[in-house]
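Lab notebook page, bench 4
Experiment: in silico fold of construct C2
Operator: M.H.
Input chain length: 308 residues
Purpose: comparison with the prior construct
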Amino acid sequence: MRHEDLTPPTSRPGPRRRPVFAAAALAGLCLTAAGCAGDGGQSPGSASGPASAASSSSPSPARSSAPAPSDSASASSSAKPLPRGPLTGRTVVIDPGHNPGNVEHTREINAQVDMGNGRKECDTTGTATNSGYAEARFTLDVSRRLRTLLEAQGAKVVLTQDGDRPFGPCVDERARIGNKAQADAVVSVHADGSATGNRGFHVILPAAVNGDGADTAKIVAPSRELGVRIAGNFVRVTGSAPSNYIGDDTGLDTRDDLGGLNLSTVPKVFIECGNMRDPKDAALLTSADWRQKAALGIAEGIGSYLKR
C-alpha cells in the first residue's frame, strides 16, 4: 500500500490511458531477461481509507525510539529441512507489510524512528478494501504463499513477521532483519490505498541515498534488476497491468523516502500488488486464487533474479 507515514509525491487526479503495449512489454522481460522464463510504502496518489497509512520506511537502528523485540526474535524462518533445488544456498527475506495487530498499538507504531535520511513513524496500520479486508491480512497471506513456493526450490526464507508479534516490527528493524540475514534478495509485500479508478501494480525501487546513516550506492543497480524481473513475471502470471497512476506505465517507481529501502545493505524492493480502494482491484486482492498467482509471480521474479 502507499505508505502514508511518508509524504508521497503529489498524486495524479485520475488514471491515465496507458499504452496497450505497456503490459506486454513488461511480460516480454520474461522472454528477454536471462533466466526469466519459467522462473515476483504508500505510493504517490494513494488515499487514506479504512485503517489506511502504511509505513514502508526502515529507520536506522541506533536512534529508533519505538519499543520492539530484538531483531532475531522478530524474524521467522521455517525449521523444516529444505529440499535441494535451484535456489539451494540462497536466502530470501520476505517482509509482509504492516501487522494486523498494529491497529491495537497506535502509540507504539507512532513512535518516531530513523529512516536514514530523516525520521518517520515506526510503522502504520496499512490500508483496507471498502469491505474491510485489511492490507496486513493480505500481505501476510501472500508472504506465506511466497515462502512455500521459494522453499520448494530450496531457498532459505525469513519473514520479518509471521503474525507472531503484537505489532511491527518498526521499519528500521525490518531493514536490519534483511541485512543481518545477508539476504540475496528482500521483497516487501504491500497493497496500495489510492483512489477509485487507479489500478494496477507497481514495484518500488531504492533511489541513490547517501548520508545520515543511509548509503544505497551498492544496492541501487541490483535492486532495479530484481524489481524489473518481478514486474515482468507479475504481469505474465497474474495478468495484471502496471499501475495507471504511478510509474509512467512501467510498473516501476523509484523513491528515497522509505527507510526500508534507505537502510538496506542488500538488494531490496517493495511491491504494491494492486489498489485496495478500487473495486476491480479489490476483487482480485480478496481472491485466494489470485493471491496464489501474485505469490507465484513474485516467486518467479525472485527466482529469475537469483538464477541470472
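Observations: Residues 160 and 174 are 6 Å apart (CA to CA). The two ends are 29 Å apart (CA to CA).
Next step: discuss at group meeting.
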